Amino acid sequence: MTHPRRHRRPHLRGKAAGIVLAGGSGTRVGAGINKAFLPLSGRSIASWGINTLASVEGVGTLVFVVRPEDLEHARFVAERETQHHLEIIIGGDTRQESELMALRHLADRIDSGAVDTVLIHDAARPLVSHGLAAAVLHAAREHGGAVPGIPAADVAPVDGPDRLAEGRFDPSSLVRVQTPQGFRASTILDAYEAAARDGFVGTDTASCAEEYTDIPVSWVRGEETNFKITYAQDLLLAQDVVAALGLRTG
């Protein structure tokens, strides 16, 4: 079911909303619970990104999107691991459905202008810095959309399943995309509603924006430490990074 869009009233600049997605499992990490709720130096993986987004000037709302079976864990995060008000909602079967549910949750505030920008972040990227999140928000407000990325210097094109493609290739034209990804809220909500009507499924927020909007999406230099925790060794590396950088654990 899709929701019709309502007329949006003229408004002064509103606040940004941080959306943190925690729809994954712990299978590849070797855990029996959603990896977002595994401990990282004293608190859950998810709480790191939540607290970082909350610390960015201009972010006024935090939405935490979880699976039904993770509600108890999410409430623990809200009550014990952050001092910021956390709006917990149930997501969908896919990342895109979860993002759409979060945007619909914010729809009235988007229509009124209370929320003008959204930052959509993977809970499994706990070590995003305050500076990077702030830079993405600034760029999103300047251009309409922004994503962080790392130049993909270690990739090459292939020609079929068993050989590299011939000819020159410029790896500087590719980046490895990270989160948070920031977009003008009204534009990205309309894009997701259009995608839902068409049955389009993108790989991330930026792919949906590219398909259904004409806003220019800028890229902000990402951070090597803003990696996604997928396997057990990633969690060990994150613990090492926390220790090396002396990051707060509570």
Automatic annotation (TrEMBL):
Single GO molecular function: 2-C-methyl-D-erythritol 4-phosphate cytidylyltransferase activity
Pfam families xref list: IspD
Assigned keywords, A-Z: Nucleotidyltransferase, Transferase
Nucleotidyltransferase as UniProt keyword: yes
GO biological process assignments: isoprenoid biosynthetic process
Name by which UniProt lists this protein: 2-C-methyl-D-erythritol 4-phosphate cytidylyltransferase
